[in-house]
Amino acid sequence: MSEEKKESEVETKTTEETKSEEISAEENKKAEEAKVEAETKSAQEAAAKVEANVKAVADAEAAVQKAIEKANAARAELEAAADEEYKVIAAEVKSDTAKKVDFTFKRTGADFFRCVEMIKDRLGAKPLVLQVPIGIEASLQGVVDLVKMKAIVWKNEDLGAAWEEKDIPEDLKEISEKYRQELVETAVEQNEKLMESYLNGDAIKNEDLIKCIRKGCLNFDFVPVLTGSAFKNKGVQPLLDAFVDYLPSPENIGSIKGTKPGTEDELEMKFDDKAPFSALAFKVANDPFVGTLTFIRIYSGTIKSGTGIYNTSKEKEERVGRMLLMHANSREDIKEANTGEEEGWEEDDAAVDRQDLA
């Protein structure tokens, strides 16, 4: 009996061990399946995040491209920090329809001259330095205007509202002369007579230098580069002056080509108030106080509120309602808009986007 009992105990123990092993194997299998499921879910989430980022970049690039399509010029704002890559959307850099002024703004670790070199190396552009910074990072006081060869110094207590012209600081005279010489030599290439005068040792007048810079900018032979501190409003006024002096007006562009509605015939619309009306609806936005606004860029002719226009995308005529001139977060009611202007009008149909109007 004792041997039978021992055999029974052995069989019972073997059975229990087998069950335990089966349970352990099942638990391991479930744990492995849970791990695979978690890894799959994590991979799917990562893929979805990448897809969302790609879409966001594509949307941003499309938005920039739309903006460039309706613009005569663009301003690229670059961080001059030593540890920063350029975050310039490719659409802006490769566009040959928009002239550009680069504006570098200062922050901790900023290096203006390294920024200029990176414009050459990474963007493949030819920078034309028009200013040299006075001070670095938080101690930025102003800029040296290489056209006037004067220092522009801002008063800190006025947040950039007030400034004064001074002589160039002694420690910046050498580098200012260096970049001034490069500026003049590059600019006078736009005018053979001025180049000849310069090579003969004659001084170049500021007004002639400005004309040469403008011509080179319009031809996209180089990109004017200015600097400042957007946070402290330092460098903003010279930047706005550069827009006026160097960037094109609608008259410089001359005309824009399009297609006659319903045909393949090409039309050339001149930038003239007396020409037939044509415009591009490049953006739709919802305003909490006004409602849906359609932003347009007028390429030719004049438009008045209450008149009818032909929407070539919808192939039907639409009536222009209230028209607004936008000023950042404020707006001004207007009754008429002319060539080269950008306006917004109330739109009942929010589906209007990227449409040609005539």
Description of the structure:
The longest helix is centred in the N-terminal third of the chain and has 68 residues. The protein has a six-stranded antiparallel β-sheet, with no helix packed on it. Strands 1-2-8-3 form a four-stranded parallel β-sheet, with helices on both faces. It contains eight helices and 20 strands. 38% of the residues lie in helices and 28% in strands.
Low-pLDDT ranges: 82-98, 348-355
Q: Give the spatial strand order of the biggest sheet.
A: 17-16-19-12-11-20
SSE succession? HEHEHEEEEEHHHEHHEEEEEEEEEEEE
The main β sheet shows up as:
6 strands, antiparallel
Overall number of domains: 2
CATH architecture of the largest domain: 3-Layer(aba) Sandwich
CATH topology of the largest domain: Rossmann fold
Radius of gyration: 32 Å
SS class: alpha+beta
The CATH superfamily of the largest domain appears as P-loop containing nucleotide triphosphate hydrolases
- Report how far the terminal alpha carbons are from each other: 109 Å
Broad CATH class of the largest domain: Alpha Beta
Multimeric status of the protein: single chain
What percent strand?
25-35%
Outline type: extended
Number of helices: 8
Query: What is the residue-averaged pLDDT?
Result: 78
**What helical percentage do the residues reach?**
25-40%
Q: Based on DSSP secondary structure assignment, what is the total number of beta strands?
A: 20
